[in-house]
């Protein structure tokens, strides 16, 4: 692959949030811009995960200029009918031979990426938001980044437990302690969100109950809305959507029911102003920032291919939106408690158990945790 020149001075935000050196690095320059392909097993416009990835690469292009960095987005679709074209599309981009790196993510792309990484050992890949199995190949050409979504979900769960019994909030019924969770599909990353959410809620109220539902995909917002409405009708007054575009249905349901729904992956209150009153805050997985970080490292010849990195609060990989809207919707007393919990997680005083990694909870322990909060 071609090496590029980058005299990069990272922005202050990136230096602070991701801990990347801002020292300019000289590398071989062949006069061509660094070229990336972002292959989405979905579409843009999800106000969430994929939009974050695209926004990050767009920001990088604006920062560096098209003479230094350019990228193309391929929207492959997310339906069952679209799945057949995911692997051929990766192979088409590999055959093209002009891309310095091909980027894709989610558990659904693992098999296709593994095959491509083995068949094109000279092609570099960035794989995000699912654990890559290096025992099957890719030790030299796949960089893997994951996020500690369990950490930010812990804060969301704690906030949900505090809000659901807060008598000052008009959109809750303080007589019960039921909160909701809407997942897209039951996979390891969504479970990581869930176990963090439950742990945070239980840290506030050991007797909290959680209404749990999975849409079965990440695109059917109508089904997501129906499931969320059922949760609200059965007593949940605060919900958390972790379902991509399908999760937008929970936000619509919250507005219809006069309840709350936490956003995910992007600042959904800002992106959906008509529903902002129902979205106290959003749990952000900094996909865009992590891609900026990875590409800048690759430009400098420092991206550790063959390595999995986890990015949490301490690394700037996740965050909770804490802006003027958050301050307006969430009572100060709750915000103070959440800020204290965040500090404890960041400095290591609180360790949030995870469904991922070497120290992951066992499936039995995950199931026991879920059963401990099931409604009814």
From TrEMBL:
A GO CC term?
Answer: plasma membrane
Sorted alphabetically, which InterPro entries does this protein's record hold? BMP_lipoprotein (IPR050957), PnrA-like (IPR003760)
Q: Which UniProt keywords apply?
A: Cell membrane, Lipoprotein, Membrane, Signal
Which range is the signal sequence, renumbered to this chain? 1-27
Q: Where in the cell is it found?
A: Cell membrane
Which parts of the sequence belong to the ABC transporter substrate-binding protein PnrA-like domain? 35-345
Name the domain of life.
Bacteria
This one is known as BMP family ABC transporter substrate-binding protein
Species whose genome carries this gene: Candidatus Blautia faecigallinarum
């Amino acid at each position: 692959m071609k090496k590029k020149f980058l005299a990069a001075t990272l922005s202050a935000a990136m230096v602070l949030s991701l801990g990347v050196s801002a020292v300019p690095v000289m590398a071989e320059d062949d006069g061509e811009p660094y070229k990336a392909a972002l292959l989405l097993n979905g579409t843009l416009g999800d106000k969430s995960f994929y939009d974050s990835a695209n926004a990050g690469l767009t920001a990088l292009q604006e920062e560096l200029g098209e003479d230094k960095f350019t990228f193309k987005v391929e929207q492959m679709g997310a339906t069952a009918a679209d799945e057949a074209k995911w692997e051929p599309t990766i192979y088409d981009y590999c055959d093209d031979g002009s891309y310095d790196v091909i980027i894709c993510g989610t558990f659904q792309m693992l098999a296709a990426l593994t095959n491509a990484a083995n068949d094109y050992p000279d092609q570099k890949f960035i794989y995000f938001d699912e654990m890559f199995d290096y025992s099957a190949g890719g030790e030299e050409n796949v960089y893997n980044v994951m996020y500690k979504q369990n950490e930010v979900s812990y804060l969301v769960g704690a906030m949900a437990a505090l809000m659901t019994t807060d008598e000052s909030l008009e959109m809750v019924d303080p007589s019960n302690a039921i909160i909701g969770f809407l997942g897209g599909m039951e996979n390891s990353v969504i479970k990581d969100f869930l176990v963090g959410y439950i742990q945070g809620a239980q840290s506030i109220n050991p007797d909290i109950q959680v209404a749990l539902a999975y849409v079965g995909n990440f695109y059917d917002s109508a089904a997501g809305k129906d499931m969320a409405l059922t949760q609200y009708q059965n007593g949940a007054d605060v919900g958390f959507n972790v379902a991509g575009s399908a999760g937008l249905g929970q936000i619509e349901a919250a507005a219809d029911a006069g309840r709350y729904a936490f956003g995910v992956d992007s600042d959904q209150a800002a992106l959906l102003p008509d529903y902002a009153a129902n979205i106290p805050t959003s749990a952000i997985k900094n996909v865009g920032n992590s891609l900026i970080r990875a590409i800048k490292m690759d430009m400098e010849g420092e991206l550790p291919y063959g390595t999995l990195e986890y990015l949490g609060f301490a690394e700037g990989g996740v965050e909770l939106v804490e802006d003027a809207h958050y301050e307006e919707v969430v009572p100060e007393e709750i915000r103070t408690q959440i800020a204290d919990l965040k500090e404890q997680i960041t400095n290591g005083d609180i360790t949030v158990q995870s469904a991922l990694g070497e120290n992951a909870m066992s499936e039995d322990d995950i199931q026991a945790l879920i059963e401990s909060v099931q409604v009814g």
